[in-house]
Amino acid sequence: MKLSPDVAGATFMAAGSSAPELATVIIGVFFAKDDIGISGVIGSAVFNIMFVISVCALCAGTVCTLNWFPLCRDCFWYALSILVMLFVICNDLISWFESLFMLLVYVAYCVSLHFNELVEKWANTLPLPCKPASPDEEAHLVTYRTLAEDPNNPNNPNNANQQQQYPDMQTNGEGGQPVAPQGAPAAPGAPGAPGPQYYKPKEPTGEEVSPLEMPPNMNQIETLRWYSVYPIHYLCRLTMPDCRQQQYRQWYPFTFVISMVWISFYSYIMVWMITVIGSTLGIPDTVMGLTFVAAGVSVPDALSSLAVVKEGYGDMAVSNAVGSNVFDILICLGLPWFLQTAIIAPGSHVNVYSKGLTYSTLSLLSTVVFLVVATHLNGWKLDKKYGVILMLWYLAFISFASLYELNVFGDLNPPECPSTY
Prior knowledge:
The chain has about 425 residues and is mainly α. It has helices at about 5-10, 10-15, 20-30, 35-60, 70-90, 95-115, 115-125, 135-140, 145-150, 160-165, 220-240, 250-280, 285-295, 300-310, 315-345, 355-375, 385-405, and strands at about 65, 95, 350, 380. It contains 17 helices and 4 strands. The strands form 2 sheets. It has a two-stranded antiparallel sheet. The chain is globular, with a radius of gyration of 24 Å. It is found in: Membrane.
């Protein structure tokens, strides 16, 4: 579809990885009749914007430079989504026109992404303090595919202009950087110089290992784990065409939909098990939603963001994490609420039982401001220091939100109804 990596991460990648959140809210609205869906979305939002980006920074292994515009764009729409959600749940009743308004805001978000290039060009003309990436940093983020498609690319070592400018250039296998003469001090950014190493995305080799084939040299624990997940791999391979193969390239919409169905099915089982465990231990559903449900349904976001950041696409990883939050709030909440209040039971309302969710939603705005400020102060780079800071902020937020739901700061969450099961 010729989408830029950040737009693809904020739309299709976010929608696909947010299928568990949508399934969780549907369960909470139509079956459980409680706040586990809302608390799961709030906890997932914090998990995505803090924990997922933190894991990407900690596990990437090298420094990945970010472009300021995709992060600021997605954070703006995320903050707007939080304000819309706060307006909708503040009176503890959700009506059909409020849920419809949430869906329309997401349509406006998609329209803004359609004109992303024009908006970015206009934003770059503004006197903002955000510093763009230097040419040396951008050179490390150029894919071989980009070089092959555009021989006139200034970062291409085979470009005739660069060969004329650097006639003595020798390629060293690291992006065509000039090799320093022997005995000469290493220049900043040279391969032997100290400093952060930046990702150069890998290209697929075409050698894919089938999950249905047992890898060699596995120990007993790995063998047991392989056999335990074999039925899942077999069903997925049986129902979803592998779009990486040439004969199934045009089947990607079908594979996308079926993958969301499978994710939703496993999410239903997970939410049911967590609800039973919380009820047995006397833990409110909202606390389980903020912690375990949020972490469980956000695993696809974490894995997809970590996968693309290891390929060098830092903007796509961050846009997926933040864009997933926009999808979670506006679609995963707005769509089930609209179906319940406008189609299944016209004129009805969806109740919000916990007062603490309003405070938690308001606190989400602090995560947006903290993310942008911390990224700017860190020079728009994903590194280990940045990851540790986000991880500590995530733990602090979840701790206070759980204390709200446990009525430590006041009687905010009503007791659960007695169960006969």
